[in-house]
Design goal:
The protein is α+β, with helices and mostly antiparallel strands. It folds into two domains: about 110 residues; about 90 residues, Immunoglobulin-like, CATH 2.60.40.10. Helices cover about 45% and strands about 25% of the residues. Strand 9 and strand 10 form a beta hairpin.
């Protein structure tokens, strides 16, 4: 039963990790923010002005109606200073464009994380899901050797989280997930080792089975 409860705990920790951010940038580094601009369905051009407003993870204003540069292709561009991206997490913003006659507002979100790469979160989720699946198979099959693999995967997942972070989660939460995953991996690894040494045929204890 304890092992099953631990797996449920890991699943609960993974639930908040899905991010639907429109942009991803590394924290504390200047970010070249570019967004497609149009007014009344037409690309922005001469006579159009765009203004960027950005809020941090606590919904405080970082940039308020900052004038953006209109590119030749109609995109609007602004270099966000790295000192405005010091917190890991999800930022929200909007771009307001007008040509004095017509206007348009676009809202967006920015995922600021350790690597600036949205694929880092995907890899973490793949490792975490693989760990859960392998450990689930080990418990269903009552096979301590599969348990070794599952424990090792949990440890690798935790180390990855500690080094590269987990999406837009804050550093403290990322470390908590990393330590939890490593701790569970070690526990499963050691439990599987004891079962193998004792020569028993099940990964979970007989007492757990009776419950």
């Amino acid at each position: 039963m304890n092992n099953k409860l631990n797996l449920l705990l890991v699943v609960a920790l993974l639930l908040p990790l899905v991010s639907a951010a429109d942009y991803t940038f590394p924290y504390s580094q200047d970010a070249n923010f570019t967004i497609s601009c149009d007014v009344d369905g037409a690309p922005c051009g001469v006579g159009t002005s765009c203004y960027l407003t950005l809020r941090d993870t606590a919904n405080n204003y970082l940039l308020n109606a900052q004038n953006m540069t209109i590119q030749s292709n109609g995109d609007a561009q602004y270099l966000i200073p790295g000192n405005n991206l010091v917190d890991i997490g999800l930022y929200s913003g909007k771009v307001y464009c007008t040509n004095t006659t017509l206007d348009n507002t676009v809202t967006f979100t920015i995922d600021v994380n350790a690597t600036g790469d949205s694929r880092g979160q995907s890899l973490f989720l793949i490792l975490a899901i693989a760990s859960l699946l392998v450990m689930g198979v080990a418990m269903l099959a009552q096979n301590e050797y599969i348990g070794f693999v599952g424990g090792a995967l949990f440890i690798v997942t935790g180390i990855y989280a500690m080094i590269y972070g987990v999406g837009n989660l804050a550093n403290t939460y990322t470390r908590a997930i990393g330590f939890t995953s490593i701790g569970l991996g070690l526990m499963f690894f050691i439990a599987a080792a004891f079962k193998a040494i004792e020569g028993t045929s099940g990964f979970s204890s007989r007492e757990d089975d009776e419950e």
